[in-house]
Amino acid sequence: MIDLGDWNERLAPLFADERYKKIRAFLIEEYKNHIVYPDMYDLYNCFRYTPFEKLRAVILGQDPYHGEGQAHGLCFSVQDGIPNPPSLENIFKELQSDIGCPRPKTGNLTKWAKEGVLLLNTSLTVREHQANSHSKCGWAWFTDSVIQLISKQKENVVFILWGGNARSKKPLIDTKKHLILECAHPSPLSAYNGFFGCKHFSKTNEYLTKNGLPPIDWDLTK
User: Fold this and answer.
1) Which of 37, 195, 6 has the alpha carbon at shortest distance from 123?
2) Contact call for residues 62 and 87 (beta carbons, < 8 A)
């Protein structure tokens, strides 16, 4: 049994579902026959690092980075010592422009996760060098269910949706209880179409503070 702290009970119905069992059977074969990222022991790090009770914001990614040593179970995040992918560089540019955070020396976003930001990819695995290669294996059902669970069981969560894939999840979120922030993806192909200047980091904290919740400490250099 995977120990995911206070997520265990909430995710148990998903892990018991026949659809999850099909995902698991698929992954056993994939990890056996191909190089798959992240490492299977990092697969559920987004839940492990962000307890449900502490969760105050969700950033949705698409699927994990597919290069060696990059992905470790948190969307947009890379492991220490790995160069920042272009999208992450643009996230840090917006972070600095928005709230003045100095540029961090690492692209590891574990500190955000521990602050209460669920860094959830809509697909949790990928084959090496094959973007979106696991997008049809059932992960969409699983991660959609997680988004709906958060929407139903929490209040005043900020859902940060960058790009078309993330924005397509809006119908799963109860906008009477939560805030949705959306814009273009931070990829170099689209960042100038509304990602730069979106001020999502400061807007997240304004909303949390207004609703009596502690703001997120976005500074990764501390």
Assistant:
1) 37
2) no
Region 166-184: mean pLDDT is 98
User: 221 vs 43, 102, 123, 133, CA distance in Å?
Assistant: 26, 7, 29, 34
Mean pLDDT (the chain, rounded): 97
Q: Are 186 and 94 in contact (CB under 8 A)?
A: yes
User: What mean pLDDT do residues 75-88 have?
Assistant: 97
**CA 153 and chain centroid, separation:** 18
CA angle 203, 162, 52 (to 5 degrees): 70
3-state helix, strand, coil in the chain (%, to 5): 45, 10, 45
At residue 2, the pLDDT reads 78
Angle made by CA atoms 168, 151, 16, in degrees to the nearest 5:
90
User: Measured in whole angstroms, how far is the alpha carbon of residue 117 from the centre of its chain?
Assistant: 8
Q: In whole angstroms, what separates CA 196 from the centre of its chain?
A: 19
Predicted TM-score of the model (pTM): 0.98
Confidence of residue 208 (pLDDT cuts 50, 70, 90): very high
**Catalytic residue (choose from 63, 98, 174, 217):** 63
Residue 1, pLDDT > 80, answer: no
pLDDT digits (tens, 9 = 90+) for 133-147: 999 999 999 999 999
Continuous H helices in 100-172? 110-115, 139-153, 164-167
Q: What is the Cα–Cα distance from 124 to 106, expressed in whole angstroms?
A: 22
Q: Catalytic annotation on 63?
A: yes
Residue where the block lists tokens 């397509």: 168
Report the distance separating Cα 144 and Cα 165, nearest Å. Answer: 12
